[in-house]
Design goal:
Two copies of one chain form a homodimer.
Chain A (H helix, E strand, L loop, with lengths): L4 E6 L29 H9 L8 E6 L3 H7 L8 E4 L5 H15 L4 E6 L3 E3 L1 H16 L4 E6 L9 E5 L12 E8 L3 H10 L2 E11 H11 L1 H7 L8 H10 L5 H6 L5 E5 L3 E3 L4 H7 L8 E2 L3 E5 L5 E3 L5 E5 L4 E6 L2 E6 L6 H18 L1
Parallel strand pairs in A: 1-2, 1-4, 2-3, 6-10, 12-14, 13-15, 14-16
Antiparallel strand pairs in A: 4-9, 5-11, 6-9, 7-8, 7-9, 8-10, 16-17
Helix pairs in contact in A: 3-6, 6-7
């Protein structure tokens, strides 16, 4: 394992799509979504630690989640957990971590990863990323990974690879032509038919110098604000910088503009598990199509359901077809899997009612 | 309130029909089935205390439930909670309590009541029972109550009243002709059409002398074994008597044989709430036909459901029609209301699995 390999894990998202499992206080990355005794961020950290030395992994999150991270990943040094005072999307987040990394090792190769995605085929994953890091170490390229799309998902981002003229001629990299966020379904269908489009898995690999240069060129204000930060910078300074900083994603701020982004086809399986339906599809099913992720489930005449409850809970289901059954924080939700876009409404109704009831007392 | 009024509350049943709410360790009478902050036995005790002085109420239960009774009804004296070592149905249970009552007051009038039935119209109830006690005080009759049947229920017992010739000519009492337990549905339909049949609400009112005489005549072995018991009788003696005692109901052992049983039409509403469906029918419904008995429920596209969960639990339901949703002891059950006869199977599957898992460790 190369001691110049560094990793930035982005762990500040407030994802409450899996409410009541996930909440703003305890979002998706801190949940054992797969029911395997390991939270998404623990799993991501363990995976990244197969590529970078443990002490080279920096987690960037929110002030809200610093304690949870130290709790879930014991033994991290202070410099490994950076807490943002406000959410400013991914560009500032990566800049903050990059500034710390550059001071620790000006020859770092940096691998940026989300904290809450599902990866199958860990060996392939480690091999892909390690290969990409080896290439990025000696080239001025930004390398990203594209997963083979299996359906016209309208919630993902798509990357277009230049298939005609693979460039540069190493590592099976292709020039990246376009980035498209969440296309309409017809567009997504055309993307898939063309064979040129891949799901953007949110992973970027670049040498620290390439990263710094890209920020200086495309996001100079962020570069200027962030690249002087060190482990000793007082919190007041961080707060001030964030309060004045633009909210922008690294995709939009750099990747879409830069002309030296190269794509690699991921050989591992990937899902961002953003919805109950994608979680259902990610998990193993029994013969009746049920994904009983956690809890001790006894099912009768029950099909195509997904169950995620505390592991010590017994659940008896009878006569349910296509439902989500989940519980967390003493809140039980039973609803149709195909109605999951309404979860946000359910959540806000419940939370509003709690606030009203608090105000009454 | 007459100080000779006594009450025997029978509270030894093991009812687990409402599993997972009710279990053999914590059966129906000890549950707040109606979600009103009061268990069935607390409610029964409070109702009976409107008819008999509190200290004249004797609860007969099982060794298993003595502690729960003292917990749920604080301040009871030892003589008020009789614990049977084994279940022998209602005839021995009433004989045991009657023996204690006779020693305390040889002029007692005794009202025998189940502990886990639903009564609506408490004023009517108090008036009916008080009237019956006034009559029983001065007559050698056994008085029972019959509720107007609203449907051909096949799980209830039926009492046939002699409508032609009301006898005796006081208190609107009718001679009771027959007792029928759980008739087939065609028979139950005929019973209802005839107008002569009433639901047996399991309440009997008799002077202590009438009770003793009836046992001596129809159940002499039980009379001999039990009527020497006192508050001082050692537990070993009780255990021995129960081990040798016949298992028989007071209905079968006395009521069906005696020719001085008289029936009174109950003016209160009654249900033995023996099934989820009868609980559903007993409770108030919202406009969508839901009976949300306990818990904080948020329902969307949900009809004809019954929810009974711990009160501090939030439940979000979407797209459910005709389901039971219930939780107790960390066991959640979601199943169709019309499939409730299968609950016993669900319960045994879960309990068996717990035993197996214990044996493994």
């Amino acid at each position: 394992m190369d001691k110049n390999n560094y990793c930035i894990i982005m762990a500040g998202g407030p994802g409450s799509r899996f409410w009541p499992l996930s909440t703003e206080e305890h979002p998706k990355q801190f949940i054992d979504l797969l029911g395997i005794g390991e939270t998404m961020i623990q799993r991501t950290f363990r995976r990244c630690a197969q590529i970078c030395p443990r002490e080279n992994i920096i987690l960037v999150s929110s002030d809200l989640y610093g304690d949870i991270i130290h709790q879930q990943i014991p033994g991290l040094a202070d410099y490994q957990v950076l807490c943002e005072p406000t959410r400013r999307n991914t560009a500032p987040c990566i800049a903050y971590a990059a500034s710390i990394i550059r001071r620790r090792n000006p020859n770092a190769t940096v691998f940026v990863s989300p904290s809450d995605h599902f990866i199958s085929g860990w060996d392939d994953y480690v091999e892909d990323i390690s290969n990409a890091m080896d290439i990025a170490r000696n080239n001025k390229w930004i390398i990203t990974l594209g997963a083979q799309p299996s359906n016209p998902n309208t919630k993902y981002g798509y990357i277009q690879f230049d298939e005609e003229l693979p460039m540069p001629p190493i590592g099976n990299l292709h020039k990246v032509l376009t980035f498209t966020e969440k296309p309409p379904v017809e567009v997504a269908r055309q993307f898939i038919c063309s064979g040129e489009f891949f799901w953007n898995v949110g992973i970027f690999i670049w040498h620290i110098d390439v990263l710094i240069d890209a920020y200086r060129q495309y996001l100079p204000a962020i570069a200027e604000a962030f690249f002087d930060l060190s482990e000793q910078t007082p919190k007041e300074t961080i707060d001030r910088i964030y309060s004045q900083c633009e909210t922008i994603s690294v995709d939009h701020g750099i990747m879409e503009k830069s002309d030296n982004v190269y794509g690699m086809r991921a050989s591992f399986g990937w899902s961002d598990v953003e919805t109950w339906d994608s979680l259902y599809n990610t998990c193993d099913h029994d013969r009746s199509g049920n994904a009983f992720i956690s809890g001790k489930v006894f099912a009768y005449d029950t099909r195509d359901c997904v169950v995620h409850v505390p592991n010590n809970k017994t659940v008896v289901l009878q006569g349910l077809d296509g439902y989500v059954v989940t519980e967390q924080n003493n809140t039980l939700m039973i609803c149709r899997r195909d109605q999951e876009e309404r979860h946000v409404k359910f959540m806000s109704d419940v939370e509003l009612s709690k606030i009203k009831s608090k105000n009454k007392h």
